[in-house]
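Late entry, written up from scratch paper. The run itself happened at the end of the previous shift, but nothing got recorded in the book at the time, so transcribing now.
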Amino acid sequence: MPVDNPEERILILAPASQDAAAMATLFHAQGWSAMVCGTAGELRYQLTAGSAVLLMTEEALELPQILDVLRQLEAQPPWAELPLIMLTHGGESRLARLLNLVAEAAGSITLLERPLGKATLLRSIEVALRSRRRQYQVRDLLEQQRHFSEELEQKVSERTQELVSSQNQLRALASELNLAEHRERKRLATELHDHLAQMLVLVLLKLGQSKQAPSRSQELIGQAEDIVNESLTYTRNLLAELSPPVLREFGLFAALRWLGEQMQRYSLTVTVHTDSRGDVRLPEDQAVLLFQSVRELLINVAKHAASKQASIIAEEREGSLRIVVEDKG
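Output as recorded:
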């Protein structure tokens, strides 16, 4: 007897005939799974478990609960149309009205007039099985489509969340950069006022003193020259901090190593670890933005962190640049 796969079963409902068991045996000999149902209630239960073909005799339409079976057939999913083979006595059936109800409920019905030959019955069952298997293929394709749709929706949802998160991070970064730019301008104004402007005022005082004391003019002019040279050195260092030549000439990693050395001016010791495979290639505006961001973070460490040690880790992995700035506090 074949292995009983519910989706491949032929369910037989033939209450007034002795042929039900014989037909089941015939189907088993063909390698098909078949089951004889004694009542319409049992048929309803077995239909719920699964079936490939429903074989009924005309007499089954007079059984109690047969209308429940028809309602069950009407409730099939969109992809399903269970093949129904009805064995009739031929001629004008006294159950014509019920046969019409069966046709409406099942959707796919084959009427076979008794007596019929074994070959005719087997061919009809074979055609019905092929039809049902094609329905199963449609069902599986629909299930795959549903699964793919759910996966796609999930991925779209995840990508949307990632995009929203990235946008929020970009807005936060833009806001922080605006604040950093404002602080940098304020710092430059303070530097120029408190240092460079004072040095220029001192130069003017020295030159004024040289006019009032000709005997000391050479000494005072020499002092003024020293102050001017000091001012030039200070200006060059200030410009180098804003946009160091090493950034343009040697790249971001080299500029970060230079920045680590320069932070000694703020009493901050910085350890710099960069990718040993060479410098990263970036557009100039991006390189400047990253350099200024790292510089701002280090200045914040120098001003606010309890520790006077920090580290920079910069590396390129699979097309992505990763920069980490940490203090040792």
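The chain is about 60% helix and 15% strand.
(Scratch paper discarded after transcription.)
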